[in-house]
Amino acid sequence: MIVVVDTNVVVQLFGKASPYRPLRNALRDGTLVMALSTPILLEYEEVVCRYAGRTRWQDVERFLELISALHGTIRLVAPTFRFRSITGDPDDDVFADCAIVSNADWIITHDHHFDVMRGAGYKAQPIAPEAFTERFLIQV
Questions:
Q1: Helices marked H in 29-114
Q2: Domains delineated in the chain
């Protein structure tokens, strides 16, 4: 399964008491493929540094490098076409573009701007991290 993870989730992914531990573990264990682009990585860096500091960004960067080296489950894409699908916040288009080009299944986000993708004909659909965890990561 291929996912794109919005910045609002990444910021909370790495804390010791993170509610998204199952998602982080699935990424760490190579269960999920994470699609990324350079603009996404730059946004991750900017926001993580702003809210948690440069040291936390280095931890996130090492985590991504580790899962890429161990499992090859980072799919780096370079969209050459801008779909302009997120009308409410054009800054979110980099996530939608990455999801479309990588043929992702899900965009894991809390951002309601991605709701326009529901039923719009794109494979990638927005889903809240809690719903994703409950649906795909929690074994009953």
A1: 38-52, 54-71, 93-101
A2: 2-137 (3.40.50.1010)
Name the DSSP letter for residue 136. Answer: I
pLDDT at residue 105 is higher than 50: yes
Q: What confidence tens digit (pLDDT) does each residue in 60-91 have?
A: 999 999 999 999 999 999 998 888 888 888 88
In the numeric block, the tokens 């931890």 are attached to 59
Q: Which H or E run includes 3?
A: strand 2-5
Whole-angstrom distance between the N-terminal and C-terminal Cα of the chain? 20
The CA radius of gyration of the chain, in Å to the nearest whole number, is 14
Separation CA 96–CA 109 (nearest Å): 11
CA separation for the pair 17, 57 (Å, rounded): 17
* Residue 137 CB neighbours (<10 A): 16
Helix (H, G, I), strand (E, B) or coil at 34: strand
